Amino acid sequence: MSEPLADVGLIGLAVMGENLALNMESRGFKVAVYNRTTAKVDEFIQGRAKGKRFFGAHSPKELAASLQKPRKILMLVKAGSAVDDLIEQLLPLLEQGDILIDGGNSLYTDTIRRTRRVESAGLLYVGTGVSGGEEGALHGPSLMPGGSAAAWPHIQPIFQAICARTKEGEPCCDWMGENGAGHFVKMVHNGIEYGDMQLIAETYDVMKRALNLTNAEMHSIFARWNESELDSYLIEITRDILKYRTESGEAVLDVILDAAGQKGTGKWTVVEALEQGTPLTLIGEAVFARALSAAKEERVAASAQLRQEQPAFSGDRQQLIDDLGNALYAAKIVSYAQGYQLLRAAAKVNSWNLNYGGIALVWRGGCIIRSAFLGDIKKAFDRDAHLVNLLLDPFFKEAVSSRQAAWRRVVVAAVQNGVPVPCLSAALAYFDGYRSERLPANLIQAQRDFFGAHTYERIDQPRGKFFHTNWTGHGGDTTSRAYSA
């Protein structure tokens, strides 16, 4: 009697691939696995997969032959040309209706292009965001699939079996939308993750440099915050990092070099915001903060020349600690408000029908930015599915308004003590800009018209009617046709 065919195939047995394969098998699915270095297949089958429902393939052809139809193949290889190469290798081995799934951090425009390519060959394509790291992959990640809509009924039972779940039992996985929607949502998730991490780091820096708090004192503060509205995975691990010591008593945090790395998804998010004309200022500052941190040697040299007398903090220490918690929460709201603005702009351009409340639900478990806060975002979009900006939702409007004074005191204290808080201050500047009926852009437009005849609109005339002034008296009436607002 022949061995039963596998339910799903997986290519790429690095840590994420192994853990996702084990996760799928633990949920009752038989998994066929393949890796370009076939020794890795044998090592996995004889090691972590031993005695479980796996089939080890030694070629793409053998993998394709081992799968039930329609075949479902999850690719977990490095983003970029490796994905394209693998697709071209697999297409001749597959049949109409088979499904290719890219589970890597691919750029969403690549996913749009690949969806067209695969669909033109009669197959279905899915680009899915996967968040949660190694542990999430093994025990339940957040999954954000998008692409060929006809693929969803076939992969939904697998995806919603292996994903994380909220406390209420809801799956942290749903269909995001057409072509590149899944990878776009994951990209924005990662951008928000950059912002959340930088906001927490700035809060830690003010505590450490302005208040001279010990790691133990900061651990207690973050532990308390994790029992409040700031309850989140990143606050939780910050609490644990601050407490962690080796057996010899070394505080590992204190010996880690202050140079942050990045893999590119944060940068992609900011570039896309620039393309869409969406003010993603907080996440932009988070990306630039990592870039500045990476210039460690240059900063060390500059610190010897650009010295500043830093006065000892003379204010109410407990007040500043409480203010930091409120400022962190308010700035976090702005970060998500900006991220959702970018989602809305991209959905309009790409004709995606994104479920904004559903995205918050998908992010509530398994992923790096998971937090209690996301439940409030879900409720906001339940109240108004067409909500223009989170800051206009009654809950978030009150939450930010009531924390304004604390937020401003934190930024002032940081500036006075020479502690950089680019994200906390950028979030406040965005809030003040967004709530301003009038901004100084009238002067910018006057300047543009002065040197480039770019024209302007008038407050006493309908929008879309343009004017030009001969500012110098010797200019002409010819104007530039390029105008964007």
TL;DR of this structure?
With 485 residues, this protein is α/β, with parallel strands linked by helices. The chain has 20 helices and eight strands.
What does the model show?
The protein has 20 helices and 8 strands. The chain has helices at 15-26, 38-46, 60-65, 81-90, 108-120, 133-139, 152-162, 181-210, 215-225, 233-243, 265-276, 281-294, 296-305, 317-350, 356-362, 373-383, 394-401, 404-416, 422-434, 441-452, and strands spanning 8-11, 31-34, 54-56, 72-75, 99-102, 124-131, 142-147, 177-178. The chain has an 8-stranded mixed sheet with strand order 3-2-1-4-5-6-7-8, with helices on both faces. Helix 1 (15-26) packs parallel to helix 6 (133-139), helix 9 (215-225) packs antiparallel against helix 10 and helix 14 crosses helix 18. The longest helix is centred in the last third of the chain and has 34 residues, at 317-350. The chain is globular. The relative contact order is 0.09.
Main sheet specs:
8 strands, mixed
Radius of gyration: 26 Å
Poorly predicted residue ranges: none
Mean pLDDT: 94
Share of β-strand residues: 5-15%
Class inferred from helices and paired strands? alpha/beta
What key attributes describe this structure?
alpha/beta, 8 strands, globular, 8-stranded mixed β-sheet, 485 residues, 52% helix
Q: What is the secondary structure topology, with strand pairs?
A:
Layout: E1 8-11, H1 15-26, E2 31-34, H2 38-46, E3 54-56, H3 60-65, E4 72-75, H4 81-90, E5 99-102, H5 108-120, E6 124-131, H6 133-139, E7 142-147, H7 152-162, E8 177-178, H8 181-210, H9 215-225, H10 233-243, H11 265-276, H12 281-294, H13 296-305, H14 317-350, H15 356-362, H16 373-383, H17 394-401, H18 404-416, H19 422-434, H20 441-452
Parallel strand pairs: 1-2, 1-4, 2-3, 4-5, 5-6, 7-8
Antiparallel strand pairs: 6-7
Helix pairs in contact: 1-6, 8-11, 8-12, 8-14, 9-10, 11-12, 12-19, 14-18, 14-19, 15-16
